[in-house]
Design a protein that fits this description.
The complex is a heterodimer of chains A (230) and B (336). Chain A is mainly α and 230 residues long. Chain A has a single domain, classed as MetI-like (MetI-like fold), CATH 1.10.3720. Chain A contains eleven helices and no strands. Chain A is globular and about 65 Å long. Chain B is elongated and about 105 Å long. The chains are: A mainly alpha (230), B alpha/beta (336).
Amino acid sequence: MTEIWQGFVKAIELIVSLDPEVMDVAWRSLRISAASTILASLICIPIGGLIHFRSFRGKRILINIIQTFYSFPTVAIGLLVFLMISRAGPLGFLGILFTPTAMILGQMVLITPILLGLTISALSGVDKAIRDTSISLGATEFQAIWAIIKEARYAVMAAVTMGFGRAISEVGCALMVGGNIRGFTRIMTTAIALETTRGELELAIALGIILISLALIINVALNIIQQRYT
Amino acid sequence: MIWWRPKSEGEFQIVKEVHFWTTSKERERERERERERERKMKKIILLTVLALLLAMSLVAIGCPAPQVVPDEPAAVPLRAALERMRVATTTSLYDTGLWAHLEPMFEEEFGVELDILYAGTGIALEWGRRGDVHAIATHARAREEKFVAEGYGVERVVFAYNYFLIVGPADDPAGIKGLSPEEAFKRLMETGAGRFVSRGDDSGTHGKEKAIWREAGFDYEVVRDAEWYIEAGRGMGPTLVMASEEQAYTLADMGTFLAFKADLDLVPLVTEGDILLNVYSVIAICPERRPRTNIKMANNLIDFLTSPATQRLIGLYGVEEHGMALFTPAAGMDGK
């Protein structure tokens, strides 16, 4: 228990003193996860809308598969991405292994199922009348999907928040494709893993507390935005 | 973020407004214009936000550290401006802090960003084979020689050594204190008193442990099935912590043991024996085999590690903190 308390004190110390290394790591964590969440959202929300909107054979099965991939282990995704972008792999010519770009790619792959699946279920909650009305008013497919997405924007936002949460909190994939290089690919979670193995438990706990605080700030900010514009 | 604001009350409104339009054209036109303006505003805000987010992701992709180019996200190149050189190192060199100590000196001398990846010798060699790193620093002679013989590495260059030691609980239930390493392992196997935590991660230390079991006359596959034998599957630091928690024996390199000693409830028991020699060497990845190797920087790293100045630093590393050196410089030795 004393370690947790000392970790808490240390966390506050590190935040107040704006410790450059911790700030650097936290900022990098935030940027990489924000980038991967935004890029994945730009891809997944329209595709999720399309899957919801269209009816086709095997739709149920597709959705089941997407939902199964929620629990895809992060290290397995790390291994998959590693094999793809390693020099000896099919995308090796890009030379992005052990760079932040690789981590963004890995996190995008990681959260794609969550974003797709939760977008689809968010849109399923929207009244069918909206879809029918917009079509009967002459909306194109894209416009109708857009109308439905707008109607379900809070649930979609929740999906995005969830995706961000999974991206910023995962460690297996980031460690495997990023390599935890100090000052380049070290993020909060990989730093925690390293400090724990080094026996620097206080620092590890402090980093954990900072990570939680970051998540808290982001969630509160999103909440305020939601409430303000409802 | 105004673009999230709900647009009146859904599509039902539109139907109502059609009715509106027939009664008061003027008012409807006014409203339409207002809505148009609002839509335009929304579009502008949306575009700004998107542009900002895109810029942010570009920054995240492109720049290595925020302090390098904080003010000009538009001009950030997709590749870092500074040359990067990547070395995979065994955990024992990393956990002792030796690399963190040497890194800034190398970076300053050669104007390069040194990316240090830590892993067991097994993964480090695999990264080298795949061409994902430019040099490796490991400690498993036979496998390193095989690596070079297979054409993946240019040459094995020895730069430091220290010794492995068998550590365990102070009460020493199997009574191995002062024995030779082979005798000690034999005693562990025969008495079954006390437990043994193995790295179990195919690292250089794990390889050494297997070699000792072999020398002691046991088949490793039989040993690992023993009830008292624990495979941690982790780096040297965590393995030592686990051995301490379990009050078990383990094989450790001197450097990591000294670096962790303060937090451990373990004492050195077996420290003498030729087999315990632990030689660290550095290998540049062969550019003929893996053309993307930055061979110039890899050679610079080897020259740096074997230079008299760095060798002196390696010999002094840890003296202040632990009262004794963690490594002995060994450049130019044949590296048994």
